[in-house]
Amino acid sequence: MPRADKKQRHNAKRKAKQLEMRRRASVSPLKRLAASKGAVEGWISEDFEGLGQLQMFVFKQGAGMSGVGCFLVDRGVVGLKDAWARMIDREAFSGMLDASRRRGISMRRATIDEIRRWVAGGLRWAHENGMCLPKDWAKPASLINGVGDWASADVSAFAREFTGHPEDLRQRLIGEPFETYLRRTDITFFFSDDAPYLDQETGEYVDADDESDFYELDEEDGDLESIAANLPAGELNRLGSKFTPAAMVLAQATADWLAARGDTPSSELVDAWRSMMLATMLTKSAMPDDSEDDVADFSYDLLEDMVRGADESRRRELHRAVGQMLEHLQTDPMMMQKTVLKIGFADEPDEVDEQS
């Protein structure tokens, strides 16, 4: 076989291996848990007709992990009012159930099919009445293997009414203007300025009961993929600049490693390494008690967000640099930590030192 063909086949195999490695690294703990064949248990609140809302928890254990998916279904036009998921252990989940009982919310065991039907119905009812759907509702739904064709779900238990804060209705409406919606005669409105509601812009509940496990855990469940987006650009750049010396050393090492194999190093290797170190630092700060594997998974998720947020003109090259960096990192998973320990961080301005 000609030498050029051998090299081409070798490069193709290496790239395939690199893509597989990156695919595996991009799978978050929640995705791994959802894909596992572990045990799942469902819990649902009672008296939907009287309370006007239905609270549902799905706790799943599998692949050495555990997590909860939570759904809040409103009887009125809001339909699926909220949905979120997080990785928690059995003790924390038991605490959620206890908190519900203390608040007078009776919870009973439910089948996953029952929960799936209610979530599907909530989705359809919200959609048909012009309401926005909860952000990332598919994440908790993945713990029950999705909800199927929710557009044809049973909605016979729902009603054309709205009960809650007027601002909640205003923010959820996407089908028509708030003023014209209020003039509809097929919907009954019961407004209360004291009712808690989810601010669709901030993702936080306003005037929520401090003892509400559903509201409180939702606020704590900061989506790690959006950590970078929530930091001011100047702060993100300042943090990233601390890693520049170590990033330059690592980028040169990666360039030498690639050149020795006959590959062309990316021009964005320094920024790739700097972003990787920044993503790792941010994730470790947000997940101090999580395993190294979980931190690594979410670090990669955050790194991918950083790449997607880069200028379009350099996004493709930065993505190539990340691939080269990750492939080099596989040869020595500790090279980043060892380099940071050896090189240290860049000096910061005096005013920053005074604040730290």
Description:
This protein has 356 residues and is α+β, with helices and mostly antiparallel strands. Strand 2 and strand 3 form a beta hairpin. The protein starts with a helix and ends with a helix. The strands form 3 sheets. A 5-stranded antiparallel β-sheet has the order 4-3-2-1-5. The protein has a two-stranded parallel ribbon with strand order 6-7. Strands 8-9 form a two-stranded antiparallel ribbon. The C terminus is likely disordered.
Topology:
Blueprint: H1 3-25, H2 29-35, E1 39-45, H3 48-51, E2 53-62, E3 65-74, E4 80-86, H4 90-102, E5 107-110, H5 112-128, H6 138-141, E6 161-164, H7 166-172, H8 178-181, E7 188-191, E8 197-198, E9 205-206, H9 213-220, H10 227-230, H11 233-241, H12 244-260, H13 269-286, H14 292-308, H15 312-329, H16 335-343, H17 350-355
Parallel strand pairs: 6-7
Antiparallel strand pairs: 1-2, 1-5, 2-3, 3-4, 8-9
Helix pairs in contact: 1-15, 12-13, 12-16, 13-14, 13-15
